[in-house]
Write a structure and sequence with these properties.
single chain
Length: 189
Amino acid sequence: MKPSAIPSASHAKTNQVLFETIRPLIKEGVKILDFGAGRGHMSAKIGEEARNRGLQPKDCIHPCEIAPEEFRYDQVECRRIDTDSLIPYPHEHFDVVYAIEVLEHTLRPYDLLQEASRVMKPGGLLLISVPNLMHILSRFGLLLRGFGTLFPPPSTLPANAGRICGHVMPLTYPYLHYGLAKQGFAPIT
């Protein structure tokens, strides 16, 4: 299925920025992990770019998802993950690891950062996006309702893990920066 036919759960601008960062790295031998791949929108974009460069998508993009049965890009296998953030690949396996709007769904986001560090090759690239809780509308929501934008009361249902009601861990930049620095990621931008 083409990327345009697979809906994205994240903002189009977020997808564009991440794809344009990853695009120049797509070459023979590169291994890219899509952690929390959802339906496969970004996996499909990367896979089709690999195909346009004469590469096999299955050699470049490696998605994993808590609900792999919802993954729609049929050119690669999507591996099942659990809520423990363990990445089902060996040490130093990936050149790029990305998680688009995923950390806020994990009970222990620092565990995911540790796992990303474990599976990345030395000099690898980690890309993460999370909802912006520091946005003024989110701050007003927190003040007036006790919940920031995109963070309603949490749900414990596994079926909600990939949905907005599955947002269980609000992370602001200082806490994300702390977790990254603790794992030795540098530079952090």
